[in-house]
Specification:
By secondary structure, the chain is α+β, with helices and mostly antiparallel strands. It has one domain. Helices cover 32% and strands 11% of the residues. The chain is built from 5 helices and 4 strands, in the order ααβαβαββα. The strands form 2 sheets. The protein has a two-stranded antiparallel ribbon. Strands 3-4 form a two-stranded antiparallel ribbon.
């Protein structure tokens, strides 16, 4: 994957984020409901009221519009459950706002988002618990 030298580091992270989204969407394409951990990971308050998780590359857990990473509105999110407890979720729901992911700065949000990607050993429903195996080297992983 190549990156544009005409754009900033935040935009480079965003391009990589779109790669990750595409790969993980395909990885979980045969899974539905809450068993589709990718769909659960990318939930945010606007589209999943009361069930926000980590959002996606364009939307933080509390975003109302694309690229709104500086929204100060607090929302309840399971993002810490993803960070600390995956795949054995404990119901760790916390109130979060833009102070968690850099107050609106693109690089800080994207780093925060990537930091929440699961990266532990094992598999669940045939899918690796370390999602970085898919994102960094998709050609080496059989789904």
């Amino acid at each position: 994957m190549g990156f544009s030298f005409e754009r900033g580091v935040g935009e480079m992270h965003e391009a990589y984020g779109h790669r990750a989204e595409s790969i993980m969407e395909k990885t979980f394409s045969k899974t539905s409901g809450d068993a589709n951990l990718w769909k659960r990971f990318i939930r945010y308050e606007k589209t999943s009221p009361g069930k926000a998780a980590c959002g996606n590359i364009h939307f933080a857990p509390n975003s109302q519009t694309d690229y709104e990473w500086g929204n100060k509105t607090p929302v309840k999110s399971e993002c810490y459950d993803w960070l600390l407890n995956f795949p054995n979720f404990k119901g760790d729901i916390r109130t979060v706002d833009d102070s968690e992911w850099g107050g609106g700065e693109i690089r800080a949000h994207h780093k925060w988002w990537f930091d929440h990607f699961p990266r532990v050993a094992g598999r669940k429903n045939g899918v690796h618990n370390n999602w970085w195996q898919y994102v960094a080297a998709p050609q080496q992983v059989i789904v």
